[in-house]
Amino acid sequence: MKIYIVGGAVRDQLLGLPVKDHDYVVVGTTPDEMLAAGFRPVGKDFPVFLHPRTQEEYALARTERKSGRGYKGFSVYAAPDVTLEDDLARRDLTINAIAEDEDGELIDPYGGQADLERRTLRHVGPAFVEDPVRILRLARFAARFGFAVAPETMALCRDMVALGEVDHLVPERVWQEVAKGLMEDQPSSLFLVLRECGALARLMPELDVLFGVPQPAKWHPEIDTGDHVMRVLDYAAAQGWPLDTRFAALCHDLGKGSTPPEEWPRHLGHEGAGVSLVESLCERIKAPNDCRELAIMVCREHGLVHRAQELRASTVLELLTRCDALRKPARFARMLDACVADARGRPTFEAVAYPQADHLLACRDAAAQVDAGAVATAASDKAKIPDAVRQARLAAVKKVLQEAGAPYDQQDN
């Protein structure tokens, strides 16, 4: 029995990154021998065991053979005669196919160390095409490390897309990889890699069609809507914002993809037009409710938020009500963060002031300070309580506008 550390732990150590988890492969043994040594079996599809003391995973060396469509269509062979090189050969990328033995010696039969130095993502062998999830993982690693994809690997990905392999991915797995990619340092790279190989058009066509759609140069020096969305997403990532904010940044301009070309570069009403597109995308990839709700809100409201300081008090209160801002202030703040990213995700706009966010937060705080219970108690006609509460909140918002020096008519007077 020989034990090796494999995969991400070796890769990250060579890159000088923190090693979070260790994966081990065991060569020259059987499940019975692992059980006799005190290991506990946990693998369903192939032999994986938990160490009796550390609870880390130890997998028997194995090979895999394609037996059907999609990422589940595999038959697995695990036996003492499977070598370490055999096991490493089934892995996706050369940088993930490096092993380290118990003496600290590296085993690198497929050139992973050289590709780390070249900052290149390259497939190990032709078996790469057998698992469409590898396209998503490839794109995610591009987002994590900023590495380029080897031309021959990109060609294989295009072939896989053309053969319909990505069409067999289950939505939950697509979301799992997309969510991980969104949380990387440069998430735009994930979507750009998917677009280059054609997978984005299959998995997220609402996003793919944005590339090549022009916007007014006055407000968008980058012109291209797809480029803008990628910049917005990377800005959100640079701030360390959470998953739902990043996903909302990704989806905020989907409506521009439905603008008739004869109306370009203007996109009047794209906010409302995008809501159904966000809904259909979220349904297809099974995005969780928090991401779905914030993405819809940002898509629907971002144009109004950008004009926040021009809005009448009644319009501000309606915005706060639609967003449920009084009951869910943290979510409302994240919605404003996504709007900040939208405003700054443009060349030369990266540091532009965005007072709209503080303005709306001040309005929200003022409305929230209204004691609805006291207003209800003071009301002589109980049927008019909702309107009385609304009027009290409206007065609070008006006061904020007055203190901000808003024009008289903007205060709904």
From TrEMBL:
Cofactor mode of binding and number, as noted: Magnesium is required for nucleotidyltransferase activity. Nickel for phosphatase activity.
Binding sites annotated in the UniProt record for Mg(2+): D21, D23
Catalytic activity: a tRNA precursor + 2 CTP + ATP = a tRNA with a 3' CCA end + 3 diphosphate; a tRNA with a 3' CCA end + 2 CTP + ATP = a tRNA with a 3' CCACCA end + 3 diphosphate
GO terms for MF: ATP binding; CCA tRNA nucleotidyltransferase activity; CCACCA tRNA nucleotidyltransferase activity; cyclic-nucleotide phosphodiesterase activity; magnesium ion binding; phosphatase activity; tRNA binding
Pfam families linked: HD, PolyA_pol, PolyA_pol_RNAbd
E.C. code: 2.7.7.72, 3.1.3.-, 3.1.4.-
Protein keywords: ATP-binding, Hydrolase, Magnesium, Metal-binding, Multifunctional enzyme, Nickel, Nucleotide-binding, Nucleotidyltransferase, RNA repair, RNA-binding, Transferase, tRNA processing
Positions of the HD domain: 225-326
Amino-acid positions noted as binding ATP in the UniProt annotation, renumbered to this chain: G8, R11, R91, R137, R140
Cofactor(s) required for function per UniProt: Mg(2+); Ni(2+)
Domain remark from Swiss-Prot or TrEMBL: Comprises two domains: an N-terminal domain containing the nucleotidyltransferase activity and a C-terminal HD domain associated with both phosphodiesterase and phosphatase activities.
Role of this protein: Catalyzes the addition and repair of the essential 3'-terminal CCA sequence in tRNAs without using a nucleic acid template. Adds these three nucleotides in the order of C, C, and A to the tRNA nucleotide-73, using CTP and ATP as substrates and producing inorganic pyrophosphate. tRNA 3'-terminal CCA addition is required both for tRNA processing and repair. Also involved in tRNA surveillance by mediating tandem CCA addition to generate a CCACCA at the 3' terminus of unstable tRNAs. While stable tRNAs receive only 3'-terminal CCA, unstable tRNAs are marked with CCACCA and rapidly degraded.
UniProt miscellaneous comment: A single active site specifically recognizes both ATP and CTP and is responsible for their addition.
Protein name per its UniProtKB record: Multifunctional CCA protein
Upper taxonomic lineage: Bacteria, Pseudomonadati, Pseudomonadota, Betaproteobacteria, Neisseriales
